[in-house]
């Protein structure tokens, strides 16, 4: 059916093979090697770009942290200024209160002297009325006396015969003369009494006038003192108002600096994180919620969850592939063994994801340590599945619903509740260090190899506490 191809001499076969081999080598040199070089160049370029990006982020972080330090000092200076103005204000307030007391005393004294002056004025007016009455009485008596003297003069000028004719008898005449003499003496005595009373009242009037002049002088002096104290009080009040305004202005500036610090802190943490929690403020609010439930200090909880998952940014880089062996793969598809303990954690992991409607083979978990142990930690709090199931019912009672290890709020509360059980609610650094170590290493918490973990958590908690104090204005 087929014609036989002519045979090729062996020498020709060798030449043909050499030609083909040469072509293959040339092809590899011209195409394959440049392709490899191109891939290597691309990888190197990406690495350079990534390094440049990290350097830019680090430089930006240094700039922001320097600005935070400047603003922190500025806030402290404004705090000191506000305290200084507060002390000044308290001093002025004390002076105003003291002057108010002195003014009240003088006002009381002025009222007393005004009453005394009014009484003296009334006494003078009454004496003036009495003097006028006595003067009228004296003038009346003087007129009667003048009339009597005139009659006496007339009698003295009458002749004996005229006298006899005027009276029926000498006895009547002498009675009339005696009566007029007696009346004259009585009138003289009355006039002397009136004059005595007038002199006494005038003397009293003089004394009252002197007394009134003294009272008027005292009132004038006290009024002048009151005016001087009032002016001084107004001066102190103005100084007090100025001090209080300056105090408020300093407090406002300190508050503005702290607000700016909070905004810069959020920039720093946003720079570090592109996960569920995008700012320090958001993470702090979640930590405060967990604190109200568990009593665990927010700064400590933030430090631990920042270390564990950067508050939800780092949820792991591995996927479960084979539930029977726990073998998995990385996000870029590289096979990894020990991704999840097949007997301890895979069954509860499958149950958790099923209840939450998650694909267990498309849900990120932590990768294992390159040299030992298992991966499989879930969510922002990095719980392994068996540990999560151990507090599932308790969390449901706390939350009022089933907990979700990938829900950042649930993760904060679950982590705080676990730390509470390990003694962190005492809010003592030693207890918090131990709780962090148990959280990380379980029964091997006191292994010196793991100590840097707890030390790092405590150091970071101190930093966050300082940031919280700034945000809270402390």
TrEMBL record:
Coiled coil: 54-137, 180-260
UniProt signal peptide: none
Domain of life, source organism: Bacteria
Residues annotated as domain Transglycosylase SLT: 225-424
Keywords: Coiled coil
The protein, known as: Transglycosylase SLT domain-containing protein
Organism of provenance: Candidatus Spechtbacteria bacterium SB0662_bin_43
Phylogenetic placement of the source organism: Bacteria, Candidatus Spechtiibacteriota
């Amino acid at each position: 059916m087929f014609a036989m191809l002519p045979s090729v001499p062996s020498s020709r076969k060798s030449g043909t093979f050499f030609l083909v081999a040469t072509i293959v080598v040339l092809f590899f040199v011209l195409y394959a090697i440049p392709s490899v070089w191109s891939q290597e160049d691309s990888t190197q370029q990406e690495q350079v770009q990534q390094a440049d990006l990290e350097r830019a982020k680090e430089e930006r972080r240094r700039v922001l942290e320097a600005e935070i330090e400047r603003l922190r000092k500025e806030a402290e200076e404004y705090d000191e200024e506000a305290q200084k103005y507060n002390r000044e204000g308290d001093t002025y307030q004390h002076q105003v209160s003291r002057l108010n007391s002195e003014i009240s005393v003088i006002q009381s004294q002025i009222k007393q002297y005004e009453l005394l002056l009014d009484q003296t004025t009334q006494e003078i007016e009454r004496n003036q009325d009495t003097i006028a009455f006595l003067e009228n009485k004296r003038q009346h008596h003087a007129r009667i006396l003048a009339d009597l003297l005139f009659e006496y003069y007339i009698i003295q000028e009458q002749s004996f015969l005229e006298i006899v004719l005027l009276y029926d008898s000498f006895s009547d005449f002498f009675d009339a003369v005696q009566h007029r003499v007696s009346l004259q003496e009585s009138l003289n005595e009355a006039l002397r009494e009136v004059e005595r009373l007038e002199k006494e009242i005038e003397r009293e009037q003089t004394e009252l006038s002197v007394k009134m002049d003294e009272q008027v002088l005292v009132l004038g002096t006290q009024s002048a003192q009151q005016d001087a104290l009032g002016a001084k009080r107004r001066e102190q009040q103005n100084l007090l108002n100025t001090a209080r305004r300056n105090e408020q202005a300093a407090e406002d500036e300190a508050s503005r600096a702290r607000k700016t610090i909070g905004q810069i802190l959020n920039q720093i943490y946003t720079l570090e994180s592109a996960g569920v929690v995008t700012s320090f403020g958001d993470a702090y609010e979640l930590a405060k919620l967990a604190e109200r439930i568990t009593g665990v200090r927010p700064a400590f909880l933030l430090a631990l969850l920042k270390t564990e998952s950067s508050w939800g940014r780092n949820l792991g880089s591995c996927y479960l592939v084979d539930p029977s062996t726990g073998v998995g793969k990385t996000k870029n598809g590289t096979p990894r063994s020990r991704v999840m303990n097949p007997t301890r954690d895979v069954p509860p992991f499958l149950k958790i994801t099923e209840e939450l409607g998650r694909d267990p083979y498309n849900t990120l978990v932590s990768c294992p340590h390159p040299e030992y142990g298992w991966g499989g930690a879930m969510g922002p709090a990095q719980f392994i599945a068996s540990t999560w199931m151990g507090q599932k019912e308790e969390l449901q009672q706390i939350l009022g619903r089933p907990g979700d290890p990938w829900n950042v709020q649930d993760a904060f509360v679950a982590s705080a509740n676990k730390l509470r059980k390990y003694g962190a609610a005492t809010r003592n650094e030693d207890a918090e260090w131990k709780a962090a170590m148990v959280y990380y290493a379980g029964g091997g918490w006191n292994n010196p190899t793991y100590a840097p973990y707890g030390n790092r958590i405590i150091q970071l908690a101190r930093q966050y506490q300082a940031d919280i104090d700034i945000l809270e204005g402390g």
